[in-house]
Every structure is written in structure tokens, then in C-alpha cells.
Amino acid sequence: MNSRLIQEILTESSIHPNGLRSFVEEMSKGFGATHCGLISIPADHLGLTVVTEFNGDPAVAEAYERYYASINPWRAAILRLAEGEVATDAELCDPTRFRDTEFYVDFGKRFGVVRTLGVVVTRSENETTFVSLDRAETDRPYEESARETLAGLRHLIQSSLQLYRANEMLGLFRTAFDSLPDALAVLRADGRMVYSNRSFAEFSGEYFMVGRNGTISARAPYADRFRRALAATVASGIPSEFGFSADAWISIMPQPNRSVVIRLRPQTRPKTTTKQIAEALRLSPAEARLVERLFANRTLVLAAEEIGIATGTAKTQLRSVFAKTGCNSQKELLLRIARL
To answer: Are residues 156 and 14 in the same domain?
Structure first.
């Protein structure tokens, strides 16, 4: 059994579209199984989802789903297992009773699903996920070393499955992302681009450069401003936006895990103007100017300097803004401005 190769395949399965297919095939080879499959049994006992086809054989997957959803004698036993617990077919069902079942006669012998070694990969309130390694009746029983190896691989299988499902969600996200007219890109905290939609690729070349390592940087004269705004948004969790030029405006929106979404759109003026801020929050023109400068990713000191007022005056105005809006912090205030 090449457990090291199996571990490599498990790791690869998280990043390749065909990863789970490679996973079940390599698991079958490593354990000397006829089939390997990942199955998900709902807690309400109604139905079953085959997470992946058994070694690419849809007939096995379809039959397995049909029998597990109704008369499979192993199903109830699997639902009683604890997370991480390993079991064989003899432990899941009395062998004498098993040979009298329709599952054994019509399915087990036909597809070589008689000798089984399986582990509960995950268990939640909603479902139990189980990996099943199946052999034909004429094959040798599983050795104790196979049981120990499968138990040791459980956490890696779990991680691989979670990442694979996350990548499936990412695929759906990318489809939706590409359909949006706005130019959008997802960046990590270090500026490395994770994904950009088609509009961004078409529209961003005039304003951004992408390095060999995927790090995105703004073209002069906006490079320093973009870098500071990105760092500030990641650190504070506060969205920021500013004009790139007379015909382009950029928004930087914080996301979980220290990432951001940037949106580049053609526009001759900011989305939220000083007048709009004053009207929406019922602020004085001076207070609205201060808030607009803070929203443009300025510190209170720098905002005061740009407006031409003392820092103490800016602090007084900000306290007045908090009182009028009911906000308790700059972050709360600027998040509210972002929703205008």
C-alpha cells in the first residue's frame, strides 16, 4: 500500500477539477479495492448523495445511491459510528444476514461491493460523510494495517473534501463574477490577485500592472496612493474609494481572511459626494467635508490639513458627527457612508 502516494493525491485533489476522481482511483489502488467512493448520508435518513462517482463508473454510483437510500443493511450501522471510526463489512452487518439481502444478491456480487473497509470522515447535525473501500467477495479480507492506515488518513481526506467543495463554490462564484458589468478583482493582503472578472481584464490595463507573482500594482501617479489605501483597508476593515483619474473611480471593499474586492468603474466624480453625505446624515457642510476626506482614506490629521483646519477643530467636528449619526467609531461611520 503506497500511503505516501495516496497522501499526495489527497493534497492534489483540493486544487484540480478532477481531483476527487484521482483521489478515489488512487485510494482503490493503494488499498487493493475494487471501488472507492465518497458518500453523504443525511441525518433524516431520507435519500443519499454520492459525492463522487465510484472510480468514474456512474453505474456503480447510481446503484449505490439507490440501495443506500432504501435497503442497504450497512446504512443504519454507519450512522451509529463516531467521526473518525473505521469499520469493516462484518462490523456493519452480520455476514450471515447480509448474504440474504437484496443488496448482496443484486448489487454486492454484481459490482464487487462485498468486502468493505470504511471510515466516517465527517459527521454533523445534517449529514454523515463516509469513504468506502470495496472489494469483491473472492478477494482477501482487509488487513489490520489497512485499517490503521485509513484511520490515519482520515483528517487528510476531510481537509481534501472541504477544499474540493470550497473550489466548487469558487467555480460558481467565478461564473457569477464574470457576469457582472463592473470591473472586479479579489486581492490578498499582499496585493496578489486571486481572481478578476472579464470586465476587469478589459478595463484595468490603463490603471494597473500585474507582476510575475500575480501581485497587482497601480500605475503612476497612483501607485503609492493605491498601496496605502489597500494596506489601510486590510488593517482597519473600512472600505475606501478614490478617483484614479477624471474618468475612473476605484473602491476597495474589505472581505474575510484579510482579502479585499476592488471595483474599478468609469466615473467622473465620487459615488458619494460631500453634498450627498450632508443631506443623508443631516450634517453641516464642514462636517460633511471632514467625513468625505475620512472616507477617501485619510487620517483625521491629514484630513484636517487638506481641509485647512486645526486637528482640534476636526476632533470637535467628528464628535458632533458621532452625536448626530449615532455612530461610536470612525469604522462604523465609514461603513455607513459606504452604504449610501
So the answer is: yes
The C-alpha angle with vertex 198 and arms to 196 and 202, in degrees rounded to 5, equals 105
**111-120, 161-170, 301-310: lowest mean pLDDT where?**
161-170
Interatomic CA distance for residues 232 and 227, integer angstroms:
9
Between the alpha carbon of residue 201 and those of residues 161, 204, 267, the distances in Å are 31, 6, 18
Percentages helix, strand, coil for the chain (3-state, rounded to 5) are 50, 20, 30
For 138, other C-beta atoms within 10 Å of its C-beta total 9
133, 151, 174 - which closes a domain: 174
How do residues 171-192 score in pLDDT, each as one tens digit?
666 777 777 777 888 888 888 8
Q: What is the DSSP string of 135-159?
A: E-TTSPPPPHHHHHHHHHHHHHHHH
pTM higher than 0.70, yes or no? Answer: no
In terms of C-beta density within 10 A (0-12 exposed, 13-18 middle, 19 or more buried), how is residue 125 classed? exposed
Asked whether the beta carbons of 164 and 18 are under 8 A apart, the reply is no
Cell output for 225: 496612493
| Contacts with 82 (C-beta within 8 Å, 6 or more apart), sequence order | 120, 123
Do 267 and 185 form a contact (C-beta atoms < 8 A)? Answer: no
Q: Domain end: 245, 265, 285, which one?
A: 265
Return the CATH number at 304.
1.10.10.10
Q: Are residues 168 and 23 in the same domain?
A: yes
- 264-290 burial, b at 16+ Cβ within 10 Å, e below that, comes to bbeeeebebebeebbeebebeebbbbb
**pLDDT score at 165:** 64
- Quick: pLDDT tens for 41-97: 777 655 555 555 566 677 777 777 776 666 567 777 888 888 899 999 888 888 777
Q: Specify the pairing of strand 240-245 against strand 86-88.
A: unpaired
